[in-house]
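Sample intake sheet
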Amino acid sequence: MKNSTASSDKIMLEVKGLKVHFNVRCKGLFGAAPKVHAVDGISFEIPKGKTFGIVGESGSGKSTTALAVMRLLDPTAGKISLNGSDISAIKGAELRTTRRKMQIIFQDPFSSLNPRIRAAQIIREPMDVMKVGNSEERDIKVAELFTKVGLRPEQLALFPHQFSGGQRQRIGIARALASQPDLIVCDEPVSALDVAIQAQILNLLRNLQSELQLTYLFISHDLGVVQYVCDEIAVMYLGQIVEQADRVSLFKKPLHPYTRALLSAVPKAQTKVARDRSGRLEGDPPSPIDLPKGCRFAGRCPVAEDKCHAEEPFLRQIGEGSHHVACHLVSESGF
């Protein structure tokens, strides 16, 4: 299902019916190999200059979605369009050319940086590989980006281990900006940092977005973080989007029991639900190989009915806004 966030805005990224399935090595000689349904038919759009967040527990499929959008994983089905161009199946030289238009900021700011080369070379490397500008222009750009992310010029000659975690993530952000991409995927960019440093990095990302009109796909398990940085948020559970809405609507009136359970576990999320401890999430998700019939959350849902275990709910619009939910128990008016 296609959910338009702002039809009048230019759509930078459009994902339609994305599926990413992995074959599991079969012990026997006969029979079809079982599949892990990591991402199972999701759709969303991100207008230029906006931030779209995907949240969920570990194993929900959010990072797999990010890797598929970056074409670091091949989609099993569906369509991924970047700035109007279908990039779902491109390969070889065409994919390498497209890489200039999309970059990723990884979760761990230490392991994602080459420890054997200096900070200046780390930032310059994408420009060398993608042949952005000449040598002199690249040097000027490196110095400019280094200052833009809040680092001092004399630190350009240092190695990654000589920086703090927050400073290393700033280098990762500068590297992502080096090729002047249309889209930046932020895959848990602050989860490995101290809380005080998280705020600094999030403020930096917001300031850079405002200044450079950047478009972000923001992956996180922390609802407090996405509430601060995202314009629209999708909640994923076991490979599917179960609720999607603009930031204000999602936190003011969460509709899906899974979203409410997530919010009840986040005291810093500014919502009445966060203060209601009765909806705590219990148990583990079912196997992504042997999926249950009906709603995938039904086995953990405190309000599930017989219908929930028998019929799969589909994402549908609630009311006249952009709020969508996949739950049999939510009425058309949102109650």
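Comment: The first strand starts at residue 11 and ends at 23. Residues 1-8 have pLDDT under 50 and may be disordered.
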